[in-house]
């Protein structure tokens, strides 16, 4: 089953991506197009697939494909296709709406029997067909006394010295007019940390329900990015994009969530950041093509390196060149023992034993899940027009992170990891 790690140790879990069985007579299929599940790691969802179209296809060709194949389904553009709602019975072939960002175009089909898959995969415009998989996830400046609140992570990014002074200079307004999309388990938007700044965006796992957080991971992440007392960008708007629930997600829920966030950000026309504190082995479902198109649309994508104490390049979205990949450090400026490392890491941020909001108050957690929103928060705090960055492209932001942070202060050992530690004091003269 595909192992998808929600990038923290305390909630460390596994995405089990499930796929449909291959055709009975596999010789009839173009095996270069068909992506089968690794059944040693993943479970499969019966008769459900993600169909990805060629990035070279024109809008007219895509429209023609959708029209030509429409007759093969009982229903098309069904927003509930791919839902993991209980007792979601088949009742005929159905096709979900087109998920489109730039040249990335895909849709989900369900109740599609093995023997009929050739009807789709044989079309020249189809680049690949992936068996649908279920993912099991585990998931005015004021001074804050960080010693009493345990906010060493904020203290560390607030100063160049490794000797913490137990003070964090913050501004309640940093990040105003910036949207941070939390692609995760949802957000408990009524938590006092969010002060009315958290919004429900979309539930891509169960479209019948709101993106309320039921296991806490998305709320932890959102609080570190933009909480009123434990976060960085304390004026930013947090938008919940729910792709997991009760420790489960699907390939299509993650894909749909990223696509929705990119298109919603374009409509709102404000500086925006997409935070992905999840990941899985890249061979199971690589997000490279999709995220590359998201970044081209102007959305800054910040992702977790993962917690396998392994090479981040072996995991997605940590392996995506256009994303900002974050490893985790300790209070002593060392790489966290569990953090993935290597050439795909762009920056390191504090992520061990950090305070974050929970469904019922506050808790302490560790992992790259919690280093990642710290980077998202610092970027958001600097996207205000009157501050450092204004409203730049994601590529300008990536360059700023490379040049404006603390260089050479973390003990990265012989991992090949970029020795750049997050630094971002969101108070300005």
Automatic annotation (TrEMBL):
Annotated family: Belongs to the peptidase S8 family.
Residues annotated as domain Peptidase S8/S53: 177-385
InterPro entries: PCSK9_ProteinaseK-like, Peptidase_S8/S53_dom, Peptidase_S8/S53_dom_sf, Peptidase_S8_Asp-AS, Peptidase_S8_His-AS, Peptidase_S8_Ser-AS, Peptidase_S8_subtilisin-like, Peptidase_S8_subtilisin-rel
One of the record's GO cellular component terms: extracellular space
Organism of origin: Owenia fusiformis
Keywords, in A-Z order: Hydrolase, Protease, Serine protease
Stated name of the protein: Peptidase S8/S53 domain-containing protein
UniProt cross-references to SUPFAM superfamilies, sorted A to Z: Subtilisin-like (SSF52743)
Superkingdom of the organism of origin: Eukaryota
GO molecular function annotation: serine-type endopeptidase activity
Biological process terms in GO annotation: proteolysis
Record Pfam families: Peptidase_S8
Annotated catalytic residues: 184 (charge relay system), 217 (charge relay system), 369 (charge relay system)
């Amino acid at each position: 089953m595909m192992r998808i790690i929600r990038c923290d140790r305390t909630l460390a879990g596994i995405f089990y991506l499930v796929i449909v069985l291959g055709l009975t007579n596999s010789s009839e299929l173009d095996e270069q197009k068909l992506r089968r599940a690794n059944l040693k790691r993943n479970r499969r969802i019966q008769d459900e697939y993600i169909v990805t179209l060629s990035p070279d296809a024109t809008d007219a060709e895509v429209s023609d494909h959708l029209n030509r194949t429409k007759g093969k389904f009982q229903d098309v553009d069904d927003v509930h296709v791919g839902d993991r709602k209980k007792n979601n019975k088949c009742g005929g072939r159905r096709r979900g709406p087109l998920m489109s960002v730039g040249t990335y175009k895909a849709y989900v089909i369900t109740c599609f029997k093995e023997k009929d898959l050739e009807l789709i995969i044989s079309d020249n415009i189809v680049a690949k067909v992936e068996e649908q998989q279920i993912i099991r996830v585990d998931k005015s400046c004021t001074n804050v006394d960080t010693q009493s609140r345990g906010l060493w992570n904020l203290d560390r990014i607030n100063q160049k010295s490794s000797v913490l002074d137990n003070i964090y200079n913050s501004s309640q307004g940093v990040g105003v007019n910036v949207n941070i999309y939390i692609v995760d388990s949802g957000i408990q938007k009524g938590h006092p940390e969010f002060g009315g700044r958290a919004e429900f965006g979309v539930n891509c796992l169960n479209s019948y329900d709101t993106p309320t957080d039921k296991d806490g991971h998305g709320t932890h992440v959102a609080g570190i990015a933009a909480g009123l007392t434990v976060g960085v960008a304390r004026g930013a708007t947090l938008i919940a994009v729910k792709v997991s629930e009760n420790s489960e997600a699907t390939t299509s829920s993650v894909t749909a969530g990223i696509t929705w966030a990119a298109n919603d950000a374009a409509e709102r026309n404000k500086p925006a950041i997409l935070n992905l504190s999840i990941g899985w082995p890249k061979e199971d479902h690589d997000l490279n093509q999709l995220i590359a198109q998201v970044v081209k649309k102007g959305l800054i994508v910040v992702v977790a390196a993962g917690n396998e104490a392994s090479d981040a390049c072996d995991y997605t979205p940590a392996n995506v060149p256009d994303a900002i990949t974050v490893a985790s450090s300790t209070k002593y400026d060392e790489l966290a023992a569990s953090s993935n490392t290597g050439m795909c890491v762009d920056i390191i941020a504090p992520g061990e034993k950090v305070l974050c909001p929970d469904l019922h108050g506050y808790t302490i957690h560790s992992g790259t899940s919690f280093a990642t929103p710290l980077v998202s928060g610092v970027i958001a705090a600097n996207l205000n027009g009157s501050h450092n960055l204004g409203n730049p492209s994601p590529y300008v932001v990536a360059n700023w992170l490379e040049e404006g942070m603390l260089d050479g202060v973390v003990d990265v050992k012989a991992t090949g990891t970029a020795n750049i530690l997050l630094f971002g004091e969101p108070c300005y003269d």
